[in-house]
Write a structure and sequence with these properties.
Layout (H helix, E strand, L loop, with lengths): L2 H17 L6 E3 L14 H33 L9 E4 L6 E2 L13 E2 L5 E2 L5 E4 L3 H10 L7 E6 L4 H10 L1 E3 L2 E2 L6 E4 L4 H12 L6 E5 L2 H8 L4 E4 L6 H14 L5
Parallel strand pairs: 2-7, 2-11, 7-10, 11-12
Antiparallel strand pairs: 1-12, 3-6, 4-5, 5-6, 8-9
The structure holds magnesium ion.
Protein name: Magnesium-dependent phosphatase 1
Pfam families: Acid_PPase (PF12689)
GO molecular function, one term: acid phosphatase activity
Length: 255
């Protein structure tokens, strides 16, 4: 957890609201990217970042399309339509507050009526945006049958995070943990989390999407070729839909 980045993300999200911007994703990695990781400080800067992201995606998309078509013709590859691995950060992306903000409270957590949990000091840990319906869709919709779901977290309190995943409910009889195939929860640069995910699944980096509310993590993981989506307000429907569009642009051959 990088508290500075969390605060930066919060400030940025408020700034976005003030400027009336939509939650277009700021992306890093395979399909148009921000190699500096520093553009997201103002609306105008972010606008440039988004435009350069789109332009870059288009240029790279053309190149990627030609390269993939050529490669596919040679190798008889199958079409790519959806990512094979979706990776979510926990604190500030799937839920809020961050685990360190529960210090003084924390475990044990109690389930509440809306499917979230409350820590021993009465603070609620709640899923953000459309995280609940999204995790349900990923587990139940046929479209995602070949896609794995992972979490990559550097949370300060991994045992609390485990308990929250066990007790937060996505639907009747379905807890959050049961919707996640792989968990990589430990300290360190998230590049390590992704190398572990790659080794465990065999899935190429360019078949992954990563969602995180810290630009530094997006930038780091983006260097591997993973499409990384900055989520300053957590997993919203807008972010989700547009991330799939970004992925599709990077894999034009499949469409
Ligand atoms: Mg986070």
């Amino acid at each position: 957890m990088r508290r500075g980045s969390f605060i930066e993300a919060e400030r940025f999200a408020r700034h976005v609201d003030k400027c009336g911007m939509t939650d277009l994703p700021l992306c890093f990695g395979v399909s148009g990217f921000d190699q500096t990781g520093s553009q997201n400080r103002t609306c105008s800067d972010r606008g440039r970042a988004t435009r350069s992201c789109s332009a870059s995606a288009s240029r790279r998309g053309n190149y990627e399309s030609r390269r993939r078509t050529k490669g596919a013709m040679a190798a008889g590859a199958t079409r790519v339509t959806v990512p094979r691995l979706l990776v979510f950060d926990l604190d500030g992306t799937l839920w809020r507050p961050e685990m360190y903000e529960l210090w003084g409270g924390g475990a044990p957590f109690k389930p509440n009526k809306d499917g979230n949990v409350v820590d021993r000091s009465g603070t609620e840990v709640r899923l953000l945006g459309n995280s609940r319906s999204l995790l349900l869709e990923l587990r139940t919709d046929e479209r995602w049958k070949d896609t794995q779901v992972a979490v990559a977290s550097r949370t300060d309190e991994p045992t609390w995070a485990e308990e929250c995943m066990q007790k937060i409910m996505i639907a009747d009889g379905m807890n959050m943990k049961s919707t996640i195939d792989i968990e990589e929860i430990y300290k360190g640069n998230k590049v390590h989390h992704f190398r572990a995910l790659h080794e465990k699944t065999g899935i190429p980096y360019d078949q992954m999407i990563f969602y995180d509310n810290e630009t530094a993590n997006c930038h780091d993981v983006g260097t591997l070729g993973v499409l990384c989506i900055f989520t300053p307000r957590g997993m919203t429907d807008g972010i989700w839909q547009q991330s799939l569009e970004q992925f599709a642009k990077a894999h034009k051959f499949g469409h």
